[in-house]
Amino acid sequence: QGQLVESGGRSVQAGGSLRLSCVVSGYTFSSRTMGWFRQPPGKEREAVARIYTDNNATRYSDSVKGRFTISQDNAKNTVYLQMNSLKPEDTAMYYCVTNLIVTRPWLQAGAWGTWGQGTQVTVSS
After folding, report:
1. Between the CA of residue 90 and those of 6, 8, 19, 34, 44, what are the distances in Å?
2. Per residue in 75-103, pLDDT tens?
C-alpha cells in the first residue's frame, strides 16, 4: 500500500514563506498526478495545486496562483509546495494527494485516491 508523508508545516507571520514536502513511498512516482489540498478550520477541503510527474505540467487554484509553486524531485520521490506571500487565510491543514489517473476535475476532492495525514500551516497577521 502506497503512502504519502507530508512535512514542513509550522506557524509563520503574514508575508512569510514556507516549503511543504510530500514523500511518496510504495507507488511508482512516474506517470501519476500529484497534488495539494488544504482544509481551513471549519471549512471544506479545497484544491491548491497539481502536477503531472511525467511532464511537470501544473495547475493552481485562483486563490494561490502567483504565490504558490508546486514542483517535484523524481530522484527523491518528493513533491514540494513552495508558499510565498502567505496570508492569514492560508491557514489550514495541508494534504498531499495522488492518483494514477485523475478522471474527474482535479479541483474535486473525489478525484484523488490517496491522501496523506496532513501538515498544519498557521499564518498570523
Report:
1. 17, 14, 13, 20, 13
2. 999 999 999 999 999 999 999 999 988 87
